[in-house]
Amino acid sequence: MTESAVIFNIQRFSIHDGPGIRTTVFLKGCSLNCFWCHNPEGIHTKPEVLFYSDRCIYCGECLSKCEHSAHTINNNTHEYNRDLCVVCGDCIQFCYSDALELTGKTITAEDVFEEILKDKDYYASSGGGVTLSGGEPMLHSAFSISILKKCKAENIHTAIETSGNCRWSQIEEALPYTDLIMMDIKHLDTDKHKSATGVHNGLILENAERISEVNIPVIFRIPVIPTVNDAEEEIAAISGFVSGLQQKRKNKFGKDSAFLRLQLLKFHRLAGDKYRAADMQNRAAELPDITKERMSELKKCAASFDIDFKE
Ligand code: SF4
Ligand code: SF4
After folding, report:
1. Are both 82 and 110 inside the same structural domain?
2. Mutate-to-test residue for ligand 2 from 55, 59, 81, highest number of ligand atoms within 8 A of CB
3. What is the DSSP secondary-structure string of 180-198?
4. How far is the CA of 111 from the centre of ligand 1 (A)?
């Protein structure tokens, strides 16, 4: 059976989503709604039109192509009405100033794999491979597993970036074809987790425990978000939890244990344009910055635990 899913990007020559040079496939749809998300176009499952109003030159091409009257221009003000738009994409190819963009397309696992294979030589020479990201790749587990299987058959290193907020069976089925798991742990306090991400953390922490019990390399990551988890006690709580998981893994697998690391990621607000273009509220816009010095202090706090710490 040909598996398909909606993706919003295939990024070739990526160097931030795992070791070496990678192709990162971004799947659309996420069960979390983190208010600082830097891929807001990955939250909703369906394709969407992004409208960058500041790029519009009021040429009117999109008005004439749209059969649903979703675009109107009056006195150099361009209104795009999402309620009228059926996301057919007809207007987008005629916008020569890149003010309109269709994000999300349905694609088969075969077609993604064909794209992945183009850079196979680079993966081999750089120790890289393929990363499935999102959104949440495990919400489309049949599609994701189909890609992972094909990669393994070609000896391509595979990684998944997951929020962990999915059924364990969805992760478990992917494990035989996965070389590295990258998973966020955002807060140990379940109510604070819910207020920041829209969901409680019970399932995520359960899945983190289960992942530590299988011998696959894993990097747990803390996205450090001002007002959410940028206090020492919050970082210490997560670090202590991860240190406990590492110990369990060592007890179970001894010297053959695959690595289980912790990494802190600095908050950034690069997605402001995308929030505007998708008509989504950018709830992180007013957050204070987090300084390099503060990040160093928090990293020091995390590294003070018995833990494999990744800079
Ligand atoms: S995507 Fe289709 S329906 Fe939506 S504005 Fe463009 S032409 Fe109209
Ligand atoms: S086609 Fe593009 S530039 Fe022209 S009016 Fe539409 S959005 Fe603006």
Report:
1. no
2. 59
3. EEEEE---SSHHHHHHHHS
4. 26
**From the DSSP assignment, how many helices (H) and strands (E) are in the chain?**
10, 13
Q: 36 vs 87, 209, 228, CA distance in Å? A: 26, 25, 10
Q: 88 CB less than 6 Å from ligand 1?
A: yes
61 lines ligand 2 (CB under 6 A): yes
Residue 76 in this model has a pLDDT that exceeds 90? no
Mean pLDDT of 231-254: 97
Query: Residue of the nearest CA to atom 7 in ligand 1?
Result: 66
CA 205 to chain centre: 18
In this prediction, residues 190-196 reach a mean pLDDT of 97
Nearest-atom index, ligand 2, CA of 97: 3
Give, in degrees to the nearest 5, the angle at Cα 17 between 241 and 234.
25
The atom of ligand 1 lying closest to the CA of 92 is: 6
Residue nearest to atom 8 of ligand 2 (CA): 56
| pLDDT the model gives residue 293 | 95
Regarding the beta carbon of 95 and ligand 2, being less than 6 Å apart is answered yes
Q: Which domain holds residue 66?
A: 48-103
The amino acid that residue 10 corresponds to is I
What does residue 10 show for φ and ψ, rounded to 5 degrees?
-120, 110
Nearest Cα residue to atom 3 of ligand 1: 85
CATH of the domain at 89: 3.30.70.20
> How far apart, in Å, are the Cα atoms of 67 and each of 63, 71, 82, 99?
8, 10, 13, 19
Residues 156 and 211 in one domain: yes
Q: Is the pLDDT at 268 greater than 90, yes or no?
A: no
